[in-house]
Amino acid sequence: MSSPVLVIGALGNVGAEVVKHLLSKGKAVRAADIDVRKLKERFGDSVESVRFDFTDPLLTRRLFKV
């Protein structure tokens, strides 16, 4: 299986549409935003929900780790 597509800002207007489009194409999605609880409420188990905050360098390194 290929690596998931990372969508930063998945709770935003554009990001949420990108997530929906990728899922409709059968892609694995790693949805990233500041509130994991809201990600799970919005997308459920259809995506990997991860916390992301541009101001936290540790989160940034962990998010991009393959």
How helical, in percent, are the residues?
40-55%
Largest sheet: 3 strands, parallel
Biggest β-sheet: strands ordered side by side in the sheet: 1-2-3
Number of helices: 3
Question: So what's the overall shape?
Answer: globular
Q: What is the alpha-carbon Rg in Å?
A: 11 Å
Index terms:
alpha/beta; 3 helices; 20% strand; globular; 41% helix; 66 residues; single chain; three-stranded parallel β-sheet
Question: What does this protein look like?
Answer:
- The structure is a single chain.
- It is globular, with a radius of gyration of 11 Å.
- The mean pLDDT is 91.
- It has 3 helices and 3 strands, in the order E-H-E-H-E-H.
- By secondary structure, the protein is an alpha/beta fold.
- It has helices spanning 13-24, 36-43, 57-63; strands at 5-8, 29-33, 48-51.
- The longest helix has 12 residues, at 13-24.
- It is 41% helix and 20% strand.
- Strand 2 (29-33), helix 2 and strand 3 (48-51) form a beta-alpha-beta unit.
